[in-house]
Amino acid sequence: MDFNFIPGDIPLPLPTGGFEFLHYVFHGLLVVSWVVHILFINVLLGASLASVYFNKRGARENNPVLDRVAYLLTTPVTISENMGALWGVAPLLLISVLYTPLFYSAALMNSPQWLHIIYGNIVAFLCSYLYKYTWHTLHERKSLHVTIGTISVLLFYTLPPVFMATVQLYITPSTWTQEHTFWNALFRSDTLFRLAHFYLASFAVSGVFMLIYGYFKRKAADETDRAAGAILIRTGKSWFVVPTVLNLFIGPLALFHFPAYGLEAFFNSGYHWGIVLTVILSIYAMTQLAKEFMKDDISAAKVWTVTAIMAIAIISMATIRHGMRISLVTPVMAASVSKSEAFQNEAKAAYDAAKLIPVATTDGPRGKQLAEQHGCLGCHAEREKLVGPSYADVAQRGYDANKILALVRQPIPSNWPTFAETPMPPMPDVPEADVREIAVWINTLK
User: Fold this and answer.
1) Number of structural domains, the chain?
2) What predicted TM-score, i.e. pTM, was given to this entire model?
3) Could you read off the pLDDT of 95-123 as tens digits, one per residue?
4) Cβ–Cβ under 8 Å, residues 29 and 127
5) Do residues 149 and 181 both lie within one domain?
6) Are residues 174 and 287 located together in one domain of the fold?
7) For residue 288, what are the contacts with CB-CB under 8 A and spacing of at least 6?
8) What is the pLDDT of residues 197-235, one digit of tens each?
9) What Cα–Cα distance (Å) separates residue 201 from each residue in 43, 182, 192, 247?
């Protein structure tokens, strides 16, 4: 596979300090931190949407139980947005270390939309907190309150497309072109199918969370909370089952839209068995809920069985995801290293060849040769006044080497008023040793 648009950056060595096993630790941390981050994001997306839905419905039906459900869901939203953002830093940092040239190139292609992660998050956070903490204050102004919540939900849902477009770009550099932009990446079929899979997974995970939340609320002393718990359980069942069934069809579409070379490596490495395991676990979890699908209560055994099964399924999915990333990126990084080594070898060869070429010099003392080499004689002649004073006139001033060095570094036009209209520019790049040899030559012209 020819990756024409691989960046020419020199790959940075992993900071293992000589302990090569840390390379595998970084990959393990990437999988774990991504799982924790994505679970919080899943709950954030699902709970925020459900809260606004039940809030609006409760206001329309004047139903205090629905209002309580909506209010209860604001707590996991505010917790998840903070924990999701916090845990999201880890996988981003690990990816930027492991796949530096690919990740930063993809982020650059997606700018300025990539910045939406910052300002979009800030506005969404502020709106979600305003939505939660004005619940009772705006109780009589539900339209305004629901509008605030809706704005936060819309902003939250605009963040995953930016991430997904960037992720799809950095793991598929074989698709890069000179004209690639965020919109090109977003509306590709592979990005859209993965985005659909992600949103459905968010609803499914939120459904499991609602089962757990509802189970505990059914034990509450407050009657309204118990009734709210029943709604959470009923909603959780449908939110888990329906999206999970849909993902059984969306998942393969997302998988088989990856580049052929990555799919071949993925299946040859045996990662596809994780797909089989995940599907079996998901179907088993759905059958457990299907037996009591229409009931408002759920037993502790069912809650924790479904939760444990889906925890294993999520870990399996995370491993599959990382396996696909490795399958796609490994040959690219190898090509990048090869390209960088070739660049380094060519640069060293050019440097060594340049050292063998004799530097053209003028006749005369070494100081004069250096003055010619650094362009000094373009403005100063030995005896004649040109753009600046002659070196013979400078020699009459009796400047020692230190003084001449200081004047080369930072000229003082007032020293030569007759030449003030064209002041000498500072020349900090001329080596000190060369300036001192030029100074010795100047002072021979007295």
Assistant:
1) 2
2) 0.77
3) 988 888 888 888 888 878 888 888 999 99
4) no
5) yes
6) yes
7) 302, 305, 306, 309
8) 999 999 999 999 999 999 999 999 999 999 999 999 999
9) 10, 24, 14, 7
